[in-house]
Amino acid sequence: MWQEWLHLKNYVAIWFFQGALLRDEKGVLVNAQEGTTKALRQWRFKSFEEIEERKEDILDYLQEAVRNQQQGKEIKARIGKPLIIPKELELAFQKDAELKACFDSLNLSHQREFADHISEAKKAETRLRRLEKIIPMIKRRKGLNDKYRK
Hints:
Blueprint: E1 12-16, E2 29-30, E3 41-45, H1 48-53, H2 55-70, H3 87-95, H4 97-105, H5 108-119, H6 124-139
Helix pairs in contact: 3-4, 5-6
C-alpha cells in the first residue's frame, strides 16, 4: 500500500498546530522548535510498524485536537515582539540611505524576518554573508520568505 512508495529517512511526523493544549498522556509530543514556538508540537514515527501499532493512539490525539479546535481553544501568538536591528544591518543603513529607506517601507513582519535572519547566526562571518544576501532583497522590497507564500 502507501508504504511501498514512501521511504522514511529518519522519521515522519504529524504536526499539531495547537499541540501544547493536548493532554499528551502517552508523552509522545515534542516541540521541534524549542524556544521558537509555544503551541506547535509534533509526533514523530521512525517506522511504518510504529504507525500501525499506534493507530488507536493517533486517532485519540487527532480527535482531541479537533475537539479543542471546535471549542475555540488556542494559544495565541505573542504580539508586539520588538524589532531589534542587528549591528551589521545598522551599519549597512549608515552606509546606504537607499537601503534604509527600502527597509523602512517594508511591513513589520518582513523587517523582523530580515533582522532575525542576521541575528540568529552565531558566527560573524555567517551574519555578514546573510547581510550580503538580503541587501538586494530589501532593495527589491521582497520578503525573505516570500517565495514560500502564496
